[in-house]
């Protein structure tokens, strides 16, 4: 071995050892076991929960479950004193619950690890030996792992599920969407997600990257310091903004904004689930069920006929005039000939139909239909896939 190689090895060894010297002091490490009695207070989803020591008023780390022995590690917002429903504003392991005796461990290596009772790692921050020296729950509800200089090497604000707290952002190249939960009981991903928006106090700003556009909505001003607020993509696909006033008893939460409601610019027709699996909506009302034979009276059971085959000869399309898909307002669609739009849908087994604006040759392929919106413009067409028999 030449001496220069030796020096290089020595140097890299020293470099390595100086990084690994940044360890979490033993007094800061912890292992919390998911065991013991459940808490007494009323929390969202009618869950059972166990509060863990990490706490910064009004945020507390907990395990909660809505079905027996299937726990989510989550951050809860709310104080005991306000006597109001406490809400789950961040969670680690949606869709991948842990059981009794699961552990949350923060070791000297700086990794925060959620492991099931059998040791299976369910979730982790992947920050082992990266210079983490401490863990904190900040007053904003951001849970962070920081290095010796106070830089965040991991933060919960970078992994939202369905909720954004004040100061938390969605951005291209970073955390870029919210996904609703499936139901009150079932904490797995639901059908709705929002991409790339960000939040400042009571202004919700959102933009799209393709095409580039941006817009914002000023939400109602609340009567009090609204730093303790959150934006939630709900189970129904609607966005709602809540503020929290810990000094008000019983009604500490105020719903200050609903993205899609009767009084909003869009109206309820923009809510994907407003008229069930497949209904036509006009002025916030469900007015009809589209069928291959025309419109019939609306009921909540309206649905599309399933196309079981991917073979083009097994299905066709029926046309609806003066309707839009709920996504059309927020996306530009592709500029193509109608025949190309149709063949794109025909070749795509998952495509349930396509939407076409004849005045500007815009095409949208739809993977779900749900609520169609009645529009006054007869150049807005929908072609719904239907089995040939
Ligand atoms: C959890 O662990 C404790 C201690 O090892 C044990 O006594 C208990 O039975 C375990 N609980 C469950 C539900 O497995
Ligand atoms: C609002 O509340 C936050 C958190 O409690 C606090 O840091 C901030 O100073 C408050 N702002 C005002 C204007 O009182
Ligand atoms: C239909 O929409 C186009 C643009 O998409 C617009 O120029 C036209 O005025 C609309 N027609 C009606 C009747 O609203």
Automatic annotation (TrEMBL):
Q: Which domain of life is it from?
A: Eukaryota
Keywords assigned: Disulfide bond, Glycoprotein, Signal
Instruction: Check the record and name the PROSITE patterns matching this protein.
Output: BULB_LECTIN (PS50927)
One Pfam family this sequence matches: B_lectin
Q: Where is the Bulb-type lectin domain?
A: 27-158
Residues that span the membrane, as ranges = none
Check the record and name the InterPro entries matching this protein: Bulb-type_lectin_dom, Bulb-type_lectin_dom_sf, S_locus_glycoprot_dom, SLSG/EP1
| GO biological process terms, semicolon-separated | recognition of pollen
- Keyword flag Glycoprotein: yes
> Would you indicate the residue range of the signal peptide?
1-22
PANTHER family, per the entry: BULB-TYPE LECTIN DOMAIN-CONTAINING PROTEIN, CURCULIN-LIKE (MANNOSE-BINDING) LECTIN FAMILY PROTEIN-RELATED
Question: What does the function comment of this entry state?
Answer: Involved in sporophytic self-incompatibility system (the inability of flowering plants to achieve self-fertilization).
Q: Report the protein name in the record.
A: Bulb-type lectin domain-containing protein
């Amino acid at each position: 071995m030449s001496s220069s190689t030796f020096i290089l090895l020595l140097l890299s060894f020293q470099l390595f050892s100086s990084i690994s010297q940044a360890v979490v002091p033993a007094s800061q490490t912890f292992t919390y076991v998911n065991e013991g009695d459940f808490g007494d207070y009323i929390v969202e989803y009618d869950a059972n929960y166990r509060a863990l020591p990490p706490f910064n008023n009004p945020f507390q780390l907990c395990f909660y479950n809505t079905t027996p022995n299937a726990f989510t590690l989550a951050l809860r917002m709310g104080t005991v004193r306000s006597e109001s429903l406490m809400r789950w504003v961040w969670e680690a392991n949606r869709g991948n619950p842990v059981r009794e005796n699961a552990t949350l461990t923060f070791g000297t290596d700086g990794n925060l690890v959620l492991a099931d009772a059998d040791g299976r790692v369910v979730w982790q921050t992947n920050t082992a030996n990266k210079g983490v020296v401490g863990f904190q729950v900040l007053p904003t509800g951001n849970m962070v792992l920081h290095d010796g200089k106070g830089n965040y090497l991991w933060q919960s604000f970078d992994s939202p599920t369905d909720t954004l707290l004040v100061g938390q952002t969605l951005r291209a190249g970073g955390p870029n969407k919210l996904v609703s939960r499936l139901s009150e009981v079932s904490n797995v991903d639901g059908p709705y997600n929002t991409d790339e928006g960000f939040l400042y106090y009571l202004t919700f700003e959102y933009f799209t990257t393709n095409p580039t556009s941006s817009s914002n909505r000023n939400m109602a001003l609340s009567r009090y310091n609204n730093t303790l607020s959150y934006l939630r993509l709900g189970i129904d696909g609607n966005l709602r903004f809540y503020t929290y006033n810990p000094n008000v008893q019983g009604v500490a939460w105020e719903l200050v904004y609903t993205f899609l409601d009767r009084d909003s610019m869009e109206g309820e027709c923009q809510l994907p689930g407003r008229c069930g699996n497949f209904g036509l909506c006009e002025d916030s009302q469900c007015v009809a069920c589209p069928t291959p034979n025309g419109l019939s009276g609306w009921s909540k059971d309206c649905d599309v006929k399933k196309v079981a085959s991917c073979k083009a000869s097994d299905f066709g399309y029926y046309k609806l005039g003066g309707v839009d898909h709920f996504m059309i307002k927020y996306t530009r669609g592709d500029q193509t000939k109608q025949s190309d739009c149709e063949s794109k849908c025909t070749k795509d087994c998952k495509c349930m139909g396509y939407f076409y604006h004849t005045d500007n040759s815009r095409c949208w392929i739809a993977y779900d239909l749900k609520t169609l919106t009645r529009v006054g413009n007869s150049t807005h067409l929908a072609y719904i896939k239907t089995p040939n028999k």
